[in-house]
Amino acid sequence: MMTLNSLLRILYARRATIGSIALAVIALAIVITFLTPKLYMATTNLIIDGKGQDPVSGQSMPARMMTGYLTTQAEIIRSRNVANKVIDQLKLTTKEDVANELGLPDNETERRKALLTYLDKGLVVDTERESNVLNISFKAKNPLFAAQLADAFAQAYINTNLELRIEPAKQTARWYDQQLASMRTSLVEKQNALSSYQEKHDILATSDRLDLESAKLAELSSMLIAAQNERLNNTTRNNQISGNRGALPAQALDNPQVQRLSGELAQAQARLADLLTRVGENHPQYRQAQGEVDSLNQQLGQALRFINGSVRSSVELSQSREEQLKAELAAQKERVLQFSRNRNELTLLKQEVDNSQAAYDAALARATQTKLESQVALTDISILNIAPVPTRATTPRTAMNLMLGVLTGLLLGVAVALAREWMDRRVRTPLDIEQGLGLPVLARIPALTVGRSGFANKRFLTRNFS
């Protein structure tokens, strides 16, 4: 079992090995540090507004989840699209000094590929914790070139962000233009169909003939009911006049001539009855009175026949009027139904026109807003600080490399020392003998030390028997 004291004795005994290895590693670190080319890092700071305002509608936009949003924006900055914009913006493919410094090929396509690889290696994008600040850094041998590339990446990213916002709006605007053309054609067709229907059926937009025709239908229905009642009354009177052979009907007694003849007939019949009792049937006065009664009966019969004919004519006239009113009522019903169908069809046509107009207006308003959005060159990204030209190299870090060399050399030396000790185990303390042999140490040879007088002094160490 190795104790701390044993470990320290081993390290002390192997100090030459540890020191040589440590010095070799430190020397190697120094050589690597001086051989590593100096790189300068320039950083541009961007700030992203997490909660903005729609420039078209003026409404506040919902706040974004900044953690995921900034990560997405960092990936956009690292994209090949932004890198190509940087190349085009700085015209890196045409600059011979850049090509010579970076060792780019002569072919433009191969040169662009090499530039994309170079930009991808030198670009560093990070975010501030719990902040809306985005840092774009670039490492290069030339400090001025590093600052130019950092600023170019920032500007290319802003342009790309604008394109990503505007391009969908442009596509939507083009789609709305296509839809508006077809919707406009459909709306014109429906308006023309409505106008043609109104002209065909003589329907004015300011009049409602259906109400007039309905009123006329109600009036004809009332007239038909009155004609039917009149026909029933005349039929009843005719039946009464035709059926009462012995007695005068009440309708006939209303006639003045019938009333006069009835009165004279009653008087003549009374005289005839009186003469029958006084003089008999063969008396000239009786026969004269009988002739007067017959004459009055004949006149009364003619008057009744005239009245009956008049009543029959009234019945026929009432029937004819009733049939005429029925025909007019049926025709008016058909006219009202036709107007009702026309109005329903007109209502449907108007609804189609109104719906098409509303849809067209809504699409036109949305298309106008989308066109405005596609022309708004605004973004929620602003440059907080442009990249200053760095004056001190970022890499190599001499102090850190030396510190790492010292630590690495010491650890490697200790590891080698322990490995050699494990392969070549030596007895260094009485405890090693006791642990190795399992026997107690009775005594040990004292170490000799040389004093100032030059004579060796002896130090004795005794140990009791166990």
UniProtKB/TrEMBL annotation:
Q: Where in the cell is it found?
A: Cell membrane
Q: Major place of localization?
A: membrane
The protein's matches in InterPro entries, at most eight in alphabetical order, are given as: Bact_polysacc_biosynth/exp, Chain_len_reg_EpsF, GNVR, LPS_length_determ_N
Q: List each coiled-coil range.
A: 315-342
Domain of life here? Bacteria
Q: Where is the Tyrosine-protein kinase G-rich domain?
A: 348-421
Q: Which UniProt keywords apply?
A: Cell membrane, Coiled coil, Membrane, Transmembrane, Transmembrane helix
Give every Polysaccharide chain length determinant N-terminal domain span. 3-90
Membrane spanning residue stretches: 12-35, 399-419
- Could you tell me the membrane topology recorded for this protein? Multi-pass membrane protein
Task: Please identify the protein, giving its name as recorded.
Answer: Chain length determinant protein EpsF
User: What is the organism of origin for this protein?
Assistant: Cellvibrio zantedeschiae
